[in-house]
Amino acid sequence: MPEERGIAGKKASKDDVKAAHSKILWPTEPEDQFIVAEIIKLLVKALNATDIWEAMEYLMAARGLLQLENRKNRQAREGV
Question: Where are the domains of the chain?
Answer without folding.
Answer: 21-78
